[in-house]
Amino acid sequence: MTAQQDIRADTWTVAGRTFSSRLIVGTGKYKSLEENAAAVEASGAEIVTVAVRRVNISDLNQPMLTDYIDPKKVTYLPNTAGCFTADDAIRTLRLAREAGGWNLVKLEVLGEAKTLYPDMRETLRATEVLVKEGFEPMVYCVDDPIAAKQLEEAGAVAIMPLGAPIGSGLGIQNRVTIRLIVEGAGVPVLVDAGVGTASDAAQAMELGCDGVLMNTAIAEAKDPVLMARAMKAAVEAGRLAYLAGRMQKRRYADPSSPLAGLI
Amino acid sequence: MSLDLSVRVNGEPRRVPGPISIAEMLGELGLDPRKVAVERNFEIVPRSSLGEVCVEDGDAYEIVHFVGGG
User: Fold this and answer.
1) CA distance linking residue A119 with residue A108, whole number of Å
2) Count of CB pairs separated by less than 8 Å, A with B
3) Exposed (0-12), middle (13-18) or buried (19+): which is B39, by Cβ within 10 Å?
4) Residues near A68 by Cβ (< 8 Å), separated by ≥ 6?
5) pLDDT in tens, B19-65
6) What is the rounded CA–CA span in Å between residue B27 and residue B11?
7) What secondary structure does DSSP assign to B54-66, as a single string?
């Protein structure tokens, strides 16, 4: 089996839905919907995050996201970006479910505007309510293995710890906690937020994450479509490296050519 | 007999001719009910019942759709 066939057979499943691509991309911050659609195509993503916002009644001629990214071909994952309380997030997702007709959603409850760090108390409360109402929340959270466990116990269908603050592009700041979350989780784990470039995405996958979610790293690249391709390759490379099992690190050199038969 | 109703739509005051269903009001606003979700006085109105629920004076509506986001 070639590596290409390998990676195609290597699927992951969240809340009963199976996907081949381990890259989820956002649809914010692009210069145009055309560029956004081209980047999604290049990324190979099968899931995109979307926001829920008021329709601008006074200007109905604005282009619609759904005209450029077909929700029948790509799974829309509605988010609660901008919500700072559990109640706001729950209200937003009830509307999202009505607009889209499905239960798979991304929950994020933010604690403050400066860091956009998640408020875990509100996040956990929102998760409990949403699960009771039949939602399947993929939950953005701190990179804390205990919080991750609590979310899973509350019914989160995926755990999505930050690698670094949203939109910062700083890369994974704490590989130890991401690895601990992966080791402890019984549901998919995706690094969500903080990825800046391809090596960050590969690193997340090498740590054993099931996937990576990103927006700004692609949208704010000088060439977003090219970066989308890079991220696709990085996620695949990191995944293959994880499956392959890396060599042990050594403190000193170890020659690659045989010592026997030296002239 | 027609009766003007005062409502709020997405935070803005509007007058609509009554009696009118929510589906009809969406039509008046130029919206496709299949592409939006409607909340009336903080309660979701299921798409299937938009044609049956009547707009009442003083109602507050949130009409939302999906936009780009991360």
Assistant:
1) 9
2) 100
3) middle
4) A33, A34, A36, A37
5) 999 999 999 999 888 889 999 999 999 999 999 999 999 999 999 99
6) 19
7) BP-TT-EEEEEEE
Q: Is the ipTM of this complex over 0.90?
A: yes
Q: What ranges in chain A are assigned the alpha helix state H?
A: 3-9, 33-43, 65-68, 86-100, 120-132, 145-154, 175-184, 198-206, 216-219, 224-244
Answer yes or no: are the C-beta atoms of A89 and A121 closer than 8 Å.
no
The residue in chain B having the minimum alpha-carbon distance to the alpha carbon of residue A92 is: B64
For residue B49, give both structure tokens: 């019942």
Q: What does the angle CA A224 – CA A227 – CA A232 come to, to the nearest 5 degrees? A: 125
Report the DSSP beta bridge partners of residue B18: B3
Q: How many CB atoms lie within 10 A of CB A237?
A: 18
Of B12, B47, B70, nearest to A29 by CB-CB distance is B70
B36 touching A (Cβ < 8 Å): yes
